[in-house]
């Protein structure tokens, strides 16, 4: 394929201008406002106005007060990401290598359920996991759950909801990566007497790492920031950091604390992402 | 036994797919539910009532109409702005390419709660705390749809060589003619895909919207509200209709592709 020549001149800048202006005004500048808000004097209010006081205490207060939801967000998001990785890998591998002429249809079916409203879908999990529902009754019959045991309003329900809702974010990048693998390499490994399991861990898995990395990031980031699942499927004991930020902004009107907590969330995610990318040695994510 | 062993991965993959459809099955089932009480969410009996009276709660249909309106406007603006930017990124040379890529990547990597709260912080700081509503929601939706449009259209453009356009130019087509007769039709599927993606992102968004909506209610916000005090079954009617429409669009596109490929073969 011939390399497309990139034209020089003013047109490129003109084409970019409107999009860049929009993102600057409503994505970059808001970030500055968030940093500023997180450092306001906590004694102000939305109506009386806030005073900029470089109140770094907002951060230590937020960490002390909301340590639980912060850790919970990372743990729930992490577990959901791991389960998504296992389920998503099986599905992506099946589509890439085993589906034959049904490949496109299966890809369509991966995203199809997710066109129904996120909230409506999550509500139907509430029904599936209900106390007198099929799953709870079966688990009770198998003695895996006590007679008064339940799934709703437990961490299990929240993690199950997160896993379900963010699965496509895992499957699609994994598929893109696995589909590119040259099948002859896997055949070569079996010709050289590697059994299928050794072949998988020595050939397929390393070659699919770029998809694993972008898939886990794309799943973990929205899952740990989500609060819909925690609200609809959990109880106040499963509150995640998103629930707290939402309440602080809308109900409590405590903007500095909410801003500080948002910033902490963002910083944690950036640090984890950078560490993760460094460790896995892929820096061409963009 | 051998048959199963050979197909074990495919069967497991299909099992995962089936799992993703379980809640959809529940949504469709519940759309025919005749609930004994509004407070208990379970299947009590079959009825067509919900389908025949979709707007029994007028506030639901108002919220739905508002979501469609915001979705269409957000799709229009973000698709135009995003496609222009994608053309610039693939076809034009400019200073600051890597910071441009970063600016487009970051909104997709930022948790919605952080994006929503920073936008709210801006609106409040700028003195718009009292005017939160339709317009602030629209601004937010255009913002988070933009990156997805750029990425989708850019992928389509990057996978396209410009030999056909060069051929058109060699045959004395003006740049305008080349663009509208050759380039645009080739990129159009990418732009259409980006528009569909934008609409579903906007229509389905809750977290960013809820922070910046003031007292305005969109469909997801309506569902959130009734989730605390008893869900009308019509919500499931809307869920089913959305599912059917999107399946029809996607399968329609797939069928057309197959037919075109068959015609070319």
From TrEMBL, chain A:
**Pfam families membership:** BPD_transp_1
Q: What residue ranges are annotated as transmembrane? A: 12-35, 74-97, 104-124, 152-176, 197-221, 257-277
| Keywords assigned by UniProt, alphabetized | Cell membrane, Membrane, Transmembrane, Transmembrane helix, Transport
Boundaries of every ABC transmembrane type-1 domain copy: 70-276
Record keywords: Metal-binding included?
no
Q: Which domain of life is it from?
A: Bacteria
**Which InterPro entries does its entry note?**
MetI-like (IPR000515), MetI-like_sf (IPR035906)
**Topology of this chain in the membrane:** Multi-pass membrane protein
UniProt subcellular location: Cell membrane
Q: Give the family this protein belongs to, as stated in its UniProt record.
A: Belongs to the binding-protein-dependent transport system permease family. CysTW subfamily.
List the protein's name. Answer: ABC transporter permease
Source species of the chain? Nocardioides aestuarii
What is the organism lineage in this UniProt record? Bacteria, Bacillati, Actinomycetota, Actinomycetes, Propionibacteriales
Automatic annotation (TrEMBL), chain B:
Q: Which compartments does it reside in?
A: Cell membrane
Gene3D superfamilies, sorted: MetI-like
Report how it sits in the membrane: Multi-pass membrane protein
Q: Where is the ABC transmembrane type-1 domain?
A: 64-253
> Per the UniProt record, which residue ranges are transmembrane?
9-32, 70-90, 102-126, 132-157, 178-201, 231-251
Hydrolase listed as a keyword: no
- The question of whether Calcium is a record keyword is answered with no
- PROSITE patterns, A to Z: ABC_TM1 (PS50928)
**Primary location:** membrane
What are the entry keywords?
Cell membrane, Membrane, Transmembrane, Transmembrane helix, Transport
Protein family per UniProt: Belongs to the binding-protein-dependent transport system permease family. CysTW subfamily.
Q: What is this protein called?
A: ABC transporter permease
Q: Which organism is it from?
A: Nocardioides aestuarii
